[in-house]
């Protein structure tokens, strides 16, 4: 493989692109990406496509692209494993001295790559990008995204920068650090913050998708948000203690009030309505916290099974 590449001694950049049902946009993406990568001087590159169990002929399109360019390596997962796992597979499969992760719908503009590579050359291990605006995001998506970042930064010790995209460049040691994190429920943006190292940010405006539709439905986004909270914070688990203590304190105050009004004022407080509401509130709080503990327990269970994160059904012919 190395022999077909020009400047065999120079550093290798891997561009990792997860692709799921992207047949409409692959051709355009490949040509735009290649035209940017070709102008990078003193750098060899490879493009690692991780096809994520598509059903619209994406794999065939990718294989066609790979036939015409030895720098393109196509891997295919045995089924749809999801964006975050596809990215993680790409990190395992990339061979570069630096690895760049980007979506292949052109919402992550390839024109930023030269600047990202330059920052890597200056010694940054992580060059992240931050979306300042997104052309096809509705106000609801923007508002929920803002609320999410607010919540995760309150709940977790790891800072997750608002608007930070999965579009980033990682040095080899940053990649190796991420590969040592074997968790099943992955929120890569948080994981990238967690590893630390020298990090810098580049702002960009995300254009609308070049073609096709977003694969992130509301349910998938909520699942990713919950993964972020449950993987990066134990605050919800501890909330039960605080809320429990708060409710008990309120109960004691209320009991004091009842006793005072009974003994001093001779009033017998009629209580069935207040008892019912207390029962309902406490019942609800208890059920909610049992569910919450269940969320963490389910994650422990899934980690305990130690299944592989993904399975491959196709690797490039040149690879073992
Ligand atoms: N993707 C993937 N597997 C999935 C869903 C998405 O590999 O199950 C890829 C998709 O092909 C794209 C990237 O992840 O390259 C981001 O997905 P999308 O553009 O749908 O997300 P959005 O930009 O709308 O958040
Ligand atoms: Mg997109």
Task: Tag the structure with descriptive keywords.
disordered N terminus, binds magnesium ion, 320 residues, 8 strands, Spore Coat Polysaccharide Biosynthesis Protein SpsA, Chain A, eight-stranded mixed beta sheet, 10 helices, binds uridine-5'-diphosphate, alpha/beta
CATH homolog superfamily = Spore Coat Polysaccharide Biosynthesis Protein SpsA, Chain A
Helix content: 40-55%
CATH class: Alpha Beta
Return the average pLDDT rounded to an integer: 86
- Cα shape: elongated
Question: Would you tell me which CATH topology applies?
Answer: Spore Coat Polysaccharide Biosynthesis Protein SpsA, Chain A
% residues in beta strands: 15-25%
Q: Major beta sheet, specifics?
A: 8 strands, mixed
Output the strand order for the largest sheet.
Answer: 7-5-6-4-1-2-3-8
- What ligands does this structure carry? uridine-5'-diphosphate, magnesium ion
Tell me which CATH architecture applies here.
Answer: Alpha-Beta Complex
Instruction: Domain count, please report it.
Output: 1
Low-confidence segments, ≥5 residues, pLDDT <50? 1-7
Distance between the termini: 12 Å
Q: From the alpha-carbon coordinates, what is the Rg to the nearest angstrom? A: 25 Å
Q: Helical element count?
A: 10
> What is the subunit organization of this protein?
single chain
In total, how many beta strands?
Answer: 8
H/E series: EHEHEHEHEHEHHEHHHE
Which class of secondary structure composition applies to the elements? alpha/beta
């Amino acid at each position: 493989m190395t022999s077909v590449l020009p400047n065999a001694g120079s550093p290798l950049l891997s561009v990792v692109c997860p692709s799921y049902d992207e047949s409409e946009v692959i051709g355009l993406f490949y040509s735009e990406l290649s035209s940017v990568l070709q102008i990078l001087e003193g750098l060899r590159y490879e493009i690692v496509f991780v096809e994520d169990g598509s059903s619209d002929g994406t794999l065939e399109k990718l294989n066609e692209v790979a036939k015409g360019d030895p720098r393109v390596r196509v891997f295919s997962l045995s089924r749809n494993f999801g964006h975050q796992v596809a990215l993680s597979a790409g990190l395992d499969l990339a061979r570069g001295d630096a690895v760049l992760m980007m979506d292949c719908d052109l919402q992550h503009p390839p024109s930023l790559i030269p600047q990202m590579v330059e920052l890597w050359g200056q010694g940054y291990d992580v060059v992240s990008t931050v979306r300042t605006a997104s052309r096809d995001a509705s106000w609801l998506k923007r508002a929920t995204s803002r609320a999410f970042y607010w919540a995760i930064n309150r709940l977790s010790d790891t800072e997750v920068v608002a608007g930070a995209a999965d579009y980033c460049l990682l040095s080899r040691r940053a990649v190796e650090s991420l590969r040592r994190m074997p968790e099943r429920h992955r929120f890569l943006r948080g994981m990238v913050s967690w590893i630390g190292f020298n990090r810098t940010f580049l702002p960009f405006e995300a254009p609308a998708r070049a073609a096709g539709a977003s694969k992130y439905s509301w349910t998938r986004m909520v699942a990713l948000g919950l993964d972020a909270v449950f993987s990066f914070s134990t605050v919800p688990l501890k909330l039960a203690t605080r809320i429990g203590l708060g409710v008990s304190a309120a109960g004691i105050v209320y009991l004091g009030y009842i006793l005072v009004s009974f003994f001093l004022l001779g009033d017998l407080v009629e209580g069935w309505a207040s008892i019912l509401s207390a029962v309902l509130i406490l019942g609800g709080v208890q059920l909610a916290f049992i569910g919450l503990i269940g969320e963490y327990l389910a994650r422990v269970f899934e980690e305990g099974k130690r299944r592989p994160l993904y399975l491959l059904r196709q690797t490039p012919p040149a690879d073992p």
